[in-house]
Specification:
Layout lengths: L2 E6 L3 H4 E11 L3 H8 L3 E2 L4 E5 L2 E5 L2 E2 L16 E4 L2 H11 L4 E11 L2 E11 L2 H25 L1
Antiparallel strand pairs: 1-8, 2-7, 2-9, 3-6, 4-5, 5-7, 8-9
């Protein structure tokens, strides 16, 4: 079982408090999967929604494949997420809470298939972001000091 990261949403872990992450498949066209394999994907402004019992990835950018010919694709089209019915119902229920959203963390290839790591998250306020940075720096400093003591 091989996995290869194609795109990560690095700001998501900074801007959101992550509660849980799930794996979802994607419904793609031929030119989209070729562009994904070439690594021409951006998840920066992407999010997911549940509508009419289906989960959708919105606002992700998959660049057009150069050799696609006439059968190209719209780079920002909505893409259906492949999840089990229970997972979709659970996501719909959990997103109803105030401030909770579905954020893509990374897009990767697993055994040749495109998969999306989708997180249930709540947006952080500015002071929460500062606190997270402060804690991360304190942890890094402590590790650095304990590393120097061992030498």
């Amino acid at each position: 079982m091989t996995e290869r990261n194609v795109a990560t949403n690095r700001k998501a872990r900074h801007d959101y408090e992550i509660f849980e992450a799930i794996e979802a498949g994607l419904v793609l066209t031929g030119s989209e999967i070729k562009s994904i394999r070439a690594g021409r994907v951006s998840l920066q402004e992407a999010y997911a929604v549940v509508q009419d019992g289906e989960a959708w990835l919105v606002n992700s950018h998959i660049a057009p494949y150069e050799h696609a010919g006439y059968a190209g694709h719209d780079p920002r089209r909505r893409r259906k997420l492949l999840l089990k019915r229970r997972q979709i119902d659970d996501l719909a229920f959990r997103v109803q809470a105030k401030g909770v959203t579905l954020v893509p963390l990374r897009l990767y290839l697993k055994d040749g298939l495109a998969k999306l790591e989708l997180a249930i998250a709540r947006g952080r306020k500015r002071h929460d972001k500062r606190q997270a940075i402060r804690e991360r720096e304190m942890k890094r400093d402590m590790e650095r000091e304990t590393g120097q003591q061992r030498r």
